[in-house]
């Protein structure tokens, strides 16, 4: 398999967050199953200011803003792992989506949403998918909702149902890989 660079965006900046456990799961899963060294962009580490303007219009963007821009551009595809808060996704993620534009354009993106309840962040997934589609991202049709996240993934990203999680993740990741390869093929034939 051709080497791929996958960036995982861990969207929550909250104390006691559990969605980060799913980001760790994907990082471990990609390394174990596909021998891909995926990296995590943890929005908790970035401390971005509230959105004022898109990157291309900022006069003096911070080093962190430029660094994440480069990480997104250099990736072949992304996995966004987001919790659902009150039917939506966190402001930290909305802030980053609005900050960048060219970085998202035609970028294959897989979305995983999590919740403490039984629906796995379905409402956040729908609105996140729509916003990314609106700015030209290639959001893949496969989804990875995680209900009852606190009962299903530990702090090291290990699922309680490893076989089930791996089966779902395989389908999810293979769909992401399909769109990455489709994009590369299109670019090669352009």
UniProtKB/TrEMBL annotation:
<dbReference type="InterPro" id="IPR050712">
    <property type="entry name" value="NAD(P)H-dep_reductase"/>
</dbReference>
<protein>
    <submittedName>
        <fullName>NAD(P)H-dependent oxidoreductase</fullName>
    </submittedName>
</protein>
<dbReference type="Pfam" id="PF03358">
    <property type="entry name" value="FMN_red"/>
</dbReference>
<dbReference type="InterPro" id="IPR005025">
    <property type="entry name" value="FMN_Rdtase-like_dom"/>
</dbReference>
<feature type="domain" description="NADPH-dependent FMN reductase-like">
    <location>
        <begin position="6"/>
        <end position="148"/>
    </location>
</feature>
<dbReference type="InterPro" id="IPR029039">
    <property type="entry name" value="Flavoprotein-like_sf"/>
</dbReference>
């Amino acid at each position: 398999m051709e080497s791929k660079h996958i960036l995982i965006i861990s969207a929550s900046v909250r104390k006691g967050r559990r969605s980060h456990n799913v980001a760790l799961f994907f990082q471990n899963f990609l390394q174990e199953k596909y021998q891909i060294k995926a990296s995590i962009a943890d929005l908790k580490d970035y401390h971005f200011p509230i959105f004022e303007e898109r990157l291309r219009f900022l006069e003096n963007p911070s080093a962190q803003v430029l660094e994440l821009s480069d990480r997104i551009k250099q990736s072949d595809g992304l996995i966004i792992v987001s919790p659902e808060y009150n039917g939506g996704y966190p402001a930290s993620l909305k802030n980053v989506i609005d900050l960048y534009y060219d970085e998202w354009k035609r970028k294959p993106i897989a979305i995983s949403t999590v919740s403490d309840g039984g629906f796995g962040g379905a409402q956040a997934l729908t609105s996140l998918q729509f916003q990314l589609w609106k700015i030209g991202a290639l959001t893949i049709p496969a989804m990875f909702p995680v209900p009852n996240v606190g009962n299903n993934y530990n702090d090291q990203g290990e699922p309680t149902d490893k076989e089930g999680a791996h089966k779902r993740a395989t389908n999810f990741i293979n769909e992401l890989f399909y769109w990455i390869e489709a994009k590369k093929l299109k670019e090669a034939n352009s």
